[in-house]
Amino acid sequence: MPDTDPIGWRGVIYGTAVTAADGTQVGTVREVLGSDAEDIFHGLRVRLADSRRDVMVPADDVTAMSHTSVDTDLSRAAIEALETYDEVSTYHLASVGWLRKHLGWTKDSTSDEEPG
């Protein structure tokens, strides 16, 4: 019996099915986008089933999450029409400058994702 009990955004895992408003599977979760520190869910990076591209489904369009699927209120056509996901570089506040050090934004050398 599939586990369809509701879960929080932190419980969604890679490969979970993503469904359109009519219940058809449109893709799978590639990444959960959010801020652990602020407990804010931004959306999902979804690999479309019929192509080799990823899109970002905003959190506002996610209607339910379980261990077996993530449901959206978007049609298949609306999900397929979303722009291709472009991973945004992350930055942190650090000391910058060559001669006179001052605070500024420095590109992170690694992803902000935690291992595991």
* Strand element count: 8
Mean of residue pLDDT values = 81
Low-confidence stretches: 89-93
Radius of gyration using CA atoms only: 17 Å
Largest sheet: 6 strands, mixed
**Rough shape?**
globular
Strand order of the largest sheet: 4-3-2-1-6-5
The CATH architecture designation is Roll
Ends distance: 27 Å
Q: How many separate domains?
A: 1
Q: Could you state the order of secondary-structure elements as H and E?
A: EEEEEEHEE
Helical residues, percent:
under 10%
CATH class: Mainly Beta
Characterise the protein shown here.
This protein is mainly beta and 116 residues long. It has a single domain (9-107), classed as SH3 type barrels. 4% of the residues lie in helices and 41% in strands. The chain is built from one helix and eight strands, in the order E-E-E-E-E-E-H-E-E. It has a six-stranded mixed sheet. A two-stranded antiparallel sheet has the order 7-8. It is globular and about 30 Å long.
Topology:
Layout: E1 17-19, E2 25-35, E3 40-48, E4 54-58, E5 62-65, E6 69-72, H1 76-80, E7 91-96, E8 102-107
Parallel strand pairs: 1-6
Antiparallel strand pairs: 1-2, 2-3, 3-4, 5-6, 7-8
